[in-house]
Design a protein that fits this description.
Oligomer: single chain
Radius of gyration: 25 Å
Strand order of the largest sheet: 1-2-3-4
CATH class: Alpha Beta
Largest sheet: 4 strands, mixed
Helix content: 40-55%
Strand content: 25-35%
Shape: elongated
CATH architecture: 2-Layer Sandwich
CATH topology: Double Stranded RNA Binding Domain
Structural class: alpha+beta
Number of strands: 4
Number of helices: 4
Amino acid sequence: MRIEITSKHLSVTTPIRERIESRFEKLSGYEVDLIRPHVIITQEGKEFQIEASMGVPNGKLFAKASHEDLYSAINKMGKQLERQLNKYSHKGEARRHAKPVAMEIGTDDAEDEEVAA
């Protein structure tokens, strides 16, 4: 999988790239096509902000995290994407297991006719 990584005010080193790729490898276990993942890393003062966006069939996922430690921010972003992807992949199952609402139709009319006769 090819991940586009953009950085502002810092350079992306090999360990940073490897950490981001390892987080996205965990997401590939959900068996959902990840379309054009893009990560933006920004440093503002002492804080790092990381944003990730990617397309999925019939939707788009977006996560944003910030922390003073870049690797902690990457982990937070990865956990957010995992939650969203888990929800997306199990969305159809939620409706399938719901109990159907049963309605009794016509029982009141039949009782009224019996009383009138």
